[in-house]
Amino acid sequence: MLGICLLIGVPISFAIGASALVGLFVGDVPLSFLTQSSFTALDSFTTMSVPFFILAGAVMETGGLSKRLINVAQSVVGGVTGGFGIVTVLACAFFAAISGSSPATVAAIGAIMIPAMVERGYSVPVAASITACSGGLGIIIPPSINMIIYAISANVSVADMFLAGFGPGAIIVLALCIMIFIIAKRRGYKGTGVKFSMKSFLSTVWDAKWALLAPVIILGGIYSGWFTPTESAAIAVVYGLVVGLFVYRELKFKDLGRIFVESATTTGAVVIILATATAFGRLVSMYQIPQMISSVLFGISQNWIVILLLISVLLLILGMFMETLSIMIILTPILLPLVKSMGVDPIHFGMIMVLGAQIGMITPPVGVNLFVASGISGLSLEKMSKGIIPFVLLMCGLFVLIILVPEISTFIPALF
Length: 416
Fold this sequence. Notes:
Shape: globular
Radius of gyration: 21 Å
Structural class: mainly alpha
Helix content: over 70%
Order of helices and strands: HHHHHHHHHHHHHHHHHHHHHHH
Number of helices: 23
Number of domains: 1
Distance between the termini: 44 Å
């Protein structure tokens, strides 16, 4: 039923809800199961962090924080070969530590850096593809909305998931910078030509101090135990409003109405999917579908590496056609018991789910990062899809590396 609904273009939340209803009728389960499960999914203190992080990202994007983060990155690497592309990666990494959202990161950084790269001689497809791929750091470097959703679905610590993101995030940033440097060497994409200056660097850092302080407050408060992830999300909103309105003064009171409406719309879409998918997931567990899938996969292999690689292929295929949060919410209760039975760390598996979601955001036809970058650059989705291929291949290679080396994800959480 779910597959049919998706094929005919039914919105994902309604498709999941309809599939759950069919399952209820087939199993003669009371309809109250759907409403109770949906309400229980949303009646969670942790779930409240999702709308706050969405709002915080929108506030900080408009409030001038992204522009100052770009200036800091440019003062460090702007002069090297491929400097503007590398600046885009670093700026996305900085903004990811504030926004928690991949599309928001693409929009905030891309609006400034795509035109800047094109002006420096980058082809439009390359500039847009760099931004679309780098924007995926928004859900890998904490705080991350996708990590929060996984933690809720898997009943694991949000703080541990956040800590797990630093290792993969650092590797992805490094790999993207190296790849951009190689592309720039081959195509002759120069930097500004201005050598690194400590005076200039310190000046941009001072100007961006309030933007740079945001992730310190958000993440430092969580890891120090001063406040929970949900409380940190609320603090991020207040901090962004104060800095944007009264410090940088680039956020105007007239902007707030639009920001609140856009954030509420995004939140509404997310929580409806979360509610219906949670009910669907519980129904799937009731019908023992995870056990059936386990039997099929164990029939292929009992090696945890082979199973995780098969799951990764499934994630990549679904990511081409489905919204990433939906994939995580639906598959986590189905696949987590299987991988746990093989000794796979739930935090490691969570990072596999998040990385699969990140790649899904840059693969057509439903790659949301592609849509955002396409809208900014004015490039057709077809040309965007061709330009993004090298970056998708790189991300798939890194995906396999992180699957095969669990310590990349689990080392930092283990320290705490």
